[in-house]
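Something for you to look into today, if you have time. What I am after is a single protein written out in full by you. I want to see for myself how the chain folds. Could you add the entry underneath, on a fresh line?
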Amino acid sequence: MMFIAIVKKHYPALQVLFGPGFAEILRVLFSPPQKQHYVRELAGLTGLSLSTVQHGLRKLTALKLVTSWSNHYHKFYRANRDHELFRPLLHIVQTSERIPQIAHSRLHRKRVRHRPKKSWPLSPDRPLNWNLSLRPPKLDR
């Protein structure tokens, strides 16, 4: 006997707020223990492509939410504990792990099936006229 499970998709709150790629980067950098990671390590931990991680880190670096340093081989990134948004982001990341996930159906509007328009029959006393004629129209000269 074969059972088919219907999987309904659910999203974590962090992903709803920031999008799937950026949410994963925030989750890794702002979840305890906050430690430093190099770019390829972040790509491996998040399951994201290298370019997606680099793009997210560029945004976080521009906002100074992460600090970085290099050992001439790897560039390491770490959440900036001195930034004003560190505590609120830390709180958002930690809280989003505890709250229930949001169902896909709550985030996307339902598809509406369009019904074909009803065609109204012409009354018999009104003949069908599409203004098609075989003769060219007469021009006044």
The chain is about 40% helix and 10% strand. The helical segments are 13-18, 20-30, 39-46, 50-62, 86-98, 104-107.
